[in-house]
Design a protein that fits this description.
Length: about 210
Amino acid sequence: MAKYFDVHPENPQRRTISSVADSIRSGGLVVYPTDSCFALGCQLGSRDGIGRIRSIRDLDDRHHFTLVCQNFAQLGQFVQIDNDVFRAIKAATPGSYTFILPATREVPRQLLHPKKKTVGVRIPDHAVAQALLAELGEPLLSSTLLLPDEDEPMTQGWEIKERLDHVVDAVVDSGDCGTEPTTVLDFSSGELEIVRRGAGDTARFE
């Protein structure tokens, strides 16, 4: 059974966040809130976590996983960014954007797109997600909690706990965080490709 954590959306309880981080460090798969919608998250190098996310979401090996980072300094360890792209991304973070970029050697091979050697990265503008990232001291390997054959992510923590009770280890609930996933922008070829229009405004990039 998954543990259920009720967390204040603006001032998350330190002890609770520490318990969630401990679960992640010990190999757990958690559901947590972001500035776009709920996400599945596990430790960066967790093969079991990756496998469980793939199973829950029915993903193939071409799916871009996302490294959810606390800040820009952390993000820069895992992707290669030229000056122009750096400025564009810096101006839009934190926010509801996922950026696809060439990965550095710090990224485990199983997370890379098999042909492009790219990975998704983002910095969320959400107090609970930021508190969890600060406690972990490293990115969370994440994927939007969108179940197969469903058009929108679930928005209620209690419903997520009910539906995924036996396939995740914890559900972190800080209230409704929306149904619109991040806007996905691919900079990996040097030219911007808008992969998905979502919660982040694309006007600043067009």
